[in-house]
Amino acid sequence: MLLSVPPRSGLPAFAYNKGGKKPYVPPAQPLGPPSPSPAGGAPDQLSKTNLYIRGLHPGTTDQDLVKLCQPYGKIVSTKAILDKTTNKCKGYGFVDFDSPTAAQKP
């Protein structure tokens, strides 16, 4: 039976074998280079057009989100998030407008 010991600050992670054998020490894996930042080095930024919508009814569809948000501006896409088991809306979704101005309308 193999038991795992969670790593602690400053100590390597070990996995001990109850049979009394030497502990297994996982090989050190070199870290890869950092991922490049989008837009030529600019830090990640939140979208100014994609809105998170919560409090949706379980029967909400993508088309319902279009109808709900169309009065505020041109919509690029909508997505009601559905439960895989019930195929009902989980109560939230996303609406992506074509401009930040449309997304900020009250």
Automatic annotation (TrEMBL):
Pfam family, one: RRM_1
A single Gene Ontology CC term: nucleus
A GO term, aspect molecular function: RNA binding
InterPro entries assigned: Nucleotide-bd_a/b_plait_sf, RBD_domain_sf, RNA-binding_reg, RRM_dom
A Gene Ontology BP annotation from the UniProt entry: RNA splicing
Domain of life: Eukaryota
PROSITE patterns per UniProt: RRM (PS50102)
Pro residues biased stretches: 24-37
Key words, A-Z: mRNA processing, mRNA splicing, RNA-binding
Region (Disordered): 1-49
SUPFAM superfamilies in UniProt: RNA-binding domain, RBD
Segments forming domain RRM: 49-106
Family matches, as PANTHER family: GEO13361P1-RELATED, GLYCINE-RICH RNA-BINDING PROTEIN 2, MITOCHONDRIAL
Protein name in UniProt: RRM domain-containing protein
